[in-house]
# Entry
Amino acid sequence: MHSRAQFMDIWLIGTGDSIQIRPASIHGMLWLQTHFEDAHWDALASSQVRLPQLDAEALSQDAKNAGMSLGHLSALSVPGRF
# Structure
C-alpha cells in the first residue's frame, strides 16, 4: 500500500516568470475549484493556469494549510543537443 506522501495533489511548475498550476489528484482539483471561478475550471483541469510568483506562493501556503500535498519544480531547460 502506498503512503499519501508519495502522491501529490497539486504541482507548481516554474515556467519562466510565472508558475503553472497542475492538479494531480481529484482532491487537488476539488480544492482548486474552491479558489477559482467556474469559468476557469476547464483551464485548471487542462493545466493551462499560470500565476505570478507571489500569487502562486500565497496559493501554495493556503493549500498546505488545507492539508494538500504539493510538489514544486523549477523551470526546466535542456542545454545542448539531442
